[in-house]
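HUMAN: Please help interpret these tokens:
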Amino acid sequence: MKHYPVITRISQAWKRFTRHEKTLLGRWNIDNCDTKINQKIDLSNEDHCGPCGQYIMDKQLTKVIITKIKNENENEKNKTPIA
């Protein structure tokens, strides 16, 4: 009684129908969004240039500016009108 060829064929058919493409992760993922593509370009340039660090300095400056704007908006909201 050889059942192995039948089981082998069933398992091969199952693998064929349930095969999924592997999703690439990180920077190697294929993106169609221009913003993400530009960000990848900036990050790869930063990696290539090394210690110049212009990208990270720009990002930190942007975060500081955004934080200041948020704080100013919160201060304006918290002001009580003088009656």
About this structure: The mean pLDDT is 76.
